[in-house]
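Technical annex B. To support the medicinal chemistry partners, we prepared a structural model of the target in complex with zinc ion, based solely on the information shown next.
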Amino acid sequence: MKTIPILMYHQVDVVPPSGTPLRNLTVSPASFDWQMRCLKAWGFHGLSMRDLEPYLRGELNARVVGITFDDGYVNTHENALPILMKYGFTATCYAVSHQIGGHNFWDVPAGMAQKPLMDAPAWRHWAQLGMDVGSHTCDHIDLNQADEPVAKQQIEQSKTELEQMLGLPVRHFCYPYGRFLPQHWEWVAQAGYASATTTQRGRVHTSPEMNAYALPRVLVNHRTTWAHLGMKLLTAYEDNR
Ligand SMILES: [Zn+2]
């Protein structure tokens, strides 16, 4: 059994003032840079979900960490991409297929600032540079609140739409709000995805019994110190939270 951490990021941008809702979901470009530098210094290779596949299946063995971004912010493209390239890492960014060039309307009721999402040329550029694109449904819906046909359609159609936009396979899924039920595992698998990530905290413990459609992740935020990051990646610190 191997342990693989998958890092979860949302925005790489100026961190909003304290008291701002969902502030935890933003890291500054400088913090992101040193977090990637730490990974490199500790001998980790940062990989997209696509590049992580053989490690998750136990076919390859090395010190690897998954890097994921939810929602597809313009700031992921502008601020995180050059840093990933600098360290020779890849990452998966999960797109909302009906909000290409749109914004994060689902966060606004919670009091978060409206932020632009990547348009089609930005997504293609992201993919051309070796980064991976995953699906985060068509409309960022809460799957637990949706009827079966709607949930299935959101899972399947987003894959088709993103594949058409990119001309590339879309093999990885991420549950909006981290909300899912056991039947969603099945539907995501039936739609042809190879994995699905959640917001459950922890590192992935690979084994033949591992559920590739409910992978936990490690949240990194603006308060994460290097010692804290090391603990999250190298110890069981995250696993029982
Ligand atoms: Zn999201």
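Notes passed to the chemistry partners:
The chain has one domain: 3-238.
The radius of gyration is 17 Å.
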